Amino acid sequence: MDPDQSEDSPSNSANSHGPTQPQSPFPDEVLEKVLSFIDSRKDRSSVSLVRKDWYNAERWTRSKLFIGNCYSVSPEIVARRFPRIKSVTLKGKPRFSDFNMLPRDWGANVHSWLVMFAKVYPFLEELRLKRMTVTDESLELLAKSFPRFKALTLSSCDGFSDNGLKAIASHCRNLTELDIQDSVTDDVGGGWLSCFPENFASLEVLNFSSLNCEVSFDDLERLVGRCKSLRVLKVNDSITLDQLRRLLVHAPQLMELGTGSFMQELTPRQYEDIESAFSNCRNLQVLSGLWEATSLYLPVLYGACASLTFLNLSDVALQSSEFAKLLVHCPNLRRLWVIDTVEDKGLEALGSSCPLLEELRVFPSDPYDRHHRDGVTELGFLAVSRGCRKLRYVLYFCRRMTNAAVVTIVQNCPDFTHFRLCIMTPGQPDYLTNEPMDEAFAAVVKTCTKLKRLSVSGLLTDLTFEYIGKYAKNLETLSVAFAGSSDWGMQCVLEGCPKLRKLEIRDCPFGNAALLSGREKYEMMRSLWMSSCNVTMKGCRLLAREMPRLNVEVIKDEGNDDGQADRVYVYRSVAGPRRDAPPFVLTL
Amino acid sequence: MELQLELALSSSSGRGSDPNQDCNRRRKRCFDTAFLGVMESVDSPQTLPLLIWDEKQRSNGELHEQKRIHDLAASDRNVEDDVLVGWPPVKSWRKQFGHHSRRVCATNYVNVEHGGGDGGGRGLNSMYVKVKMEGVGIGRKVDLSSHRSYQTLIAKLIAMFGKCEDNVETYKLTYQDKDGDWVLAGDVPWETFVHSAQRLKLQKNGY
C-alpha cells in the first residue's frame, strides 16, 4: 500500500488537512470490472499496491486464493481481506516431509481454514490442498457447508479415511473433480465410491490411483457410464485389465487415463478386445498406472499412443527393449516419467523417438542399493540431451555422473528451467576424474539463464555456491544435500540469487553465520529449511529476535546435545507464531 | 582403499569454521555413507555391521539410540545398509522394485520403518498385501510391516472387516506364498511369513 496515504482517507474526499489521494478518474465499479479480468496472482499483487482504491477494488474482485504456506497467514486475516473467494489453493508442510523428515502430527491441518471458509465463503467451489492433514471431520464439514462445491484436489495429503470420502461422495451434488494424488492413508476402504447417488453424473475428473482400497467395480462402471463429461479417470491397481476395458468402452472420450493393474492372464479374444478399446480412445493425452505391465500386454496400448503428450511409467519397471518398442508409438511425447530399469539403452531410444520431449523424470528402482543394479548413468542423460533439444525439466536419479557430461548436456539443452540431479551416493565426486562436481553445476547456471529450480548433489565445495550466487539470477528454488565446505557457500547463495523463494538444505556444514547472513532475505522468501547442519539454538534464537516477522521453528532430535538445532524451518508470516504447534516444535 | 577413505574424510575436513562443533558425531552418518558409497563399486563382500542413527520415536515416547539392522534371510546381499532418513529423496509411498519380480512390496527393515519420523504415513518400506475375508465381497489391503505377530495381524484384519465382536481364535489365516501355494499361516517364523506372503485369506474356523 502507498505509505503516503493514511489508512482512513477515502479516495475521493475533499479533505484539506494532510495529504489526500487525488480523485480517481474511474468510478469504483469500472475499476472493479476491469480488475475482474486479471487472473495472475503476481499481477493482482502489483495492482493492490498502487493505491488504496485499487487495493480495495482488487480485494473485492479476487476470486482465487493461493496460499503457498498455510502458516504465513491466518484464516481470520484472509477472511477480512478477501470477501468473495470461490477457489482456494492451500499448501502446508515443507517439501521434505515427503521424505519422512517431519514427524507425524507436525501440523498443517486444514480444519480451522474450513471452519472460517464455511462462515465467509459459502459459495466456495474449489479446494486444492497440498501436503496438508485432512481429517474425516474436515471432509464432512466441507461436504456439508458449500452447496456449490465442485472440485477437490488432495495432493500428498493425509489423515482421512473412507468416511471422509463417503461424505464428499454423498453430499457434493455438483462435484466435477475428485482428485486424490499421492495421498497416503493407512487403509481408506473402498466403500466411498458406492456413495455417489444414482443420478449423480457431473464428474469430469476422478483420480483415486494412489488409494489403497478396493472399490465396487459395478458401482464404478455405472458411475463412469453416467458421467458423460468424464475426461480424467485414474483408477488404482485393484482394477484389472478386463475391468479397465469395460470402463474404456463407456468412456472413449477420456483425455487422461490411469490404468489399473496390467497383470492378468488374457485369452486371445480378451486381448483383442482390450486392444480395440484402447484404439478407440482417440483423445488420450496422458497415460499412467500400468502396474505390473509386461512386454506381453504393453502392445495393447499402442493404438492409443498417437496423441499422447504425457506418459507416466513411474509405477512400472520396464526393461529397455519393451520401453523402446512403446516409445516408437509415442512421437508426440512432451513429458515422460520412467524408472531407471530402462537403463541408458532405453534413454537412447527415447532420444531417437521423442524429439519433442520437454520433461524427463527418471526414478530409481532401487534407491537403497540393495540389488546393485546399474540404473542409468551420465550416458543415458547425454543421449537424451542429444535427441531432445527442447528439454527444459529434468529430474534424474543416478549413481554416477561426470562434470564433462553435464557441461555437454546443458550445451545441448540450454533452455532448462528445472534441473534436478540426484547422484544417489552422498558426496560422490566425478567418477572419472575424482574431482568435485562444481564444474557441472557451474555450467548449468551459466548456460541455463532461465533456470528457476535447481537440485544439486555429488561432492560439492563452496565453489558451486559461488557460481550459483553469481549466475543463477532467475533461481527460485534450490535444494542442497551433503554439499559445501563452509558458511561462505550458503552466504553466496543468499546474497546472490535475487529471486530465491525456497531454500532447502540438509546435512551441510553451514552454521550460524550463514543462517544469519540471510536474515533480511528470508522475508522475501517463502521459506528456509535446514536440517543436520551446523546451526545452533543460539543462532536460531538470535535470528528470531532480530526478525520478528519471521517464524523460526526448531525440531530437536532426542539424544542430540541441547545446543544443536537439528531441524530448522524459517518462514515469513503475518500471522505470528503458530498457535497449533505440537510440543516437539519449538517456536523461538 | 586408503585413497578412497581419505577422499571421504577430506571432503568434510574443510567444513565448519567453528572448532567447538562436534562435527564427528553429526557427520557420523555422512562418513558412514560416504565410506559405503565409495566401497559400492568394489565387489568384495562387506562385513562391517553398520548402525543406523535412529531418530526419536515421538509417537510413543520411546528413544531408540542405535539399532542393528536385521539381516534378512531372504536377501542375497552381503552388505548391511546404513540407511539415511529421507535419502535418496524419493517419496515414501513409491514402491520399490525387486530383483526378480516386477513389483515387490519392499523388503522390510523393522527399525527403519519406525526411524526418522513418520511424516509420510507409510514409512520407508511398507508391505501392503491384499486380503479377502470369506463371505465378504470387497477385499482390503493390509500393511504387514506394521505388525509383529500373527495375533496382532489377525486382530487388525478382524477389525478391518468389521467383525470386532469375534475372537481371534475363531479365524484361521491362510496366505499365498511366492510359489503360488495357499498355506496355513502360523507355522513359519513371523519374518519369514512377512517376506513370502503375497496375499491373505481369512476364514472362520470349522469350515
Quick recap of the structure?
The complex is a heterodimer of chains A (588) and B (207). With 588 residues, chain A is of the alpha/beta class.
Question: What does the model show?
Answer:
Chain A: One of its GO terms (cellular component) is SCF ubiquitin ligase complex. Chain A: It is found in: Nucleus. Chain A: Keywords: Auxin signaling pathway, Developmental protein, Nucleus, Ubl conjugation pathway. The complex is a heterodimer of chains A (588) and B (207). Chain A is of the alpha/beta class and 588 residues long. Chain A has a domain at 26-62: Monooxygenase (Up-down Bundle), CATH 1.20.1280.50. Chain A contains 20 helices and 21 strands. Chain A has a 21-stranded mixed beta sheet, with helices on one face. The longest helix of chain A is centred in the middle third of the chain and has 12 residues, at 268-279. Chain B is of the alpha+beta class. In chain B, the strands form two sheets. A five-stranded mixed beta sheet of chain B has the order 4-3-7-5-6, covered by helices on one side. In chain B, a hairpin with a 6-residue loop joins strand 3 and strand 4 (140-143). Chain B is globular, with a radius of gyration of 21 Å. At the A-B interface, loops of A face helix 1, helix 2 and strand 4 of B.
